[in-house]
Amino acid sequence: MIKVGVVGGTGYTGVELLRLLAAHPQVDLRAVTSRGEAGRHLADLFPNLRGHVDLVFTHPDESDLPGCDLVFFATPNGTAMQLVPDLLAAGVKVIDLAADFRLRDPAAWEHWYGMPHACPELLAEAVYGLPEVNREAVRGARLVANPGCYPTAVQLGFLPLLEQGLVEPGNLIADTKSGVSGAGRKAAVGTLLAEASENMKAYGVAGHRHQPEIRQGLRAATQQPVELTFVPHLTPMIRGIHATLYARLTGAAADLQSLFEQRYADEPFVDVMPLGAHPETRSVRGANHCRLAVHHPRGGQTVVVLSVIDNLVKGAAGQAVQNMNLMFGLDETTGLGAAALLP
After folding, report:
1. In the UniProt record, does the keyword Ubl conjugation occur (predicted)?
2. Thinking of the domain 2-125, which architecture would CATH place it in?
3. Active site (annotated) includes residue 149
4. What is the pLDDT of residues 162-215, one digit of tens each?
5. Of these residues, 68, 119, 149, 290, which one is catalytic?
6. At a CB cut-off of 8 Å and minimum separation 6, what does 318 contact?
7. Are 210 and 183 contacting, i.e. CB atoms less than 8 angstroms apart?
């Protein structure tokens, strides 16, 4: 059994992680920390865990995190980097679901997240946990940076095209929509029911924190400079991301459907849908899947890829469990086989 601790289990990503870990056959959940909720039963805050997790929140300073095999951080950006060095020194493996170790450049981190990095010496070691790209590196990692939700959906959609040099890397567009759970569990006017319901709006058009993460991953795939126009939108649903991706072909169109099918043929959590399909966010709700469809409208020079994920599962907690499975030599699908929820 893997002895697991979770730091920061009070947000939407945290409770989704706890839901998955509670059902995992190889996990012994030892500690869940929260400074604000210390002493409170998890099931009092999250009634869906009643009968599944019999733990109370503990203060991080009072939890036996160094006694765990693995610690997940489901904390705000800037928290994990304060604690990770000591855990690694104690022999504990770490998966960070925030952004502390996603960017390789500490100057870029400081620019986008507004604070200096506390342990920049670990940025080169941290493995970016997109299994469809870095599976073997994740297996041997002691520190994994779990990808963001938008970056997961966007990268999986663009990767086959860029890896084969079929599209112009300097002319990529990602038009993305997310449910309000992606904004977190904090109180905010913009995510109130009366504000978010029956409404859709773009945000972060001038620059979004996930853009440098996406560009970093796509640049590694093509070994060329990448220019990306990335526009996120908030939609009136709780879960889900829908990314509509546009790219310009560099020459004559290849068999794009076969390209995508072959690229992801052995990937358990990427589903390339039939020619002409239009994947829906509800088809991945609660599941660790990315569903893709590739289109070549009117045989022109533009390729359109549709990519859908659940932002809390394949975009966060599910992908983190997938990475844990790889790090501990388990079948990576362990604990993640549930079908999506409908309706």
Report:
1. no
2. 3-Layer(aba) Sandwich (3.40)
3. yes
4. 999 999 999 999 999 999 998 888 888 888 888 889 999 999 999 999 999 999
5. 149
6. 16, 20, 269, 287, 288, 310, 312, 336
7. no
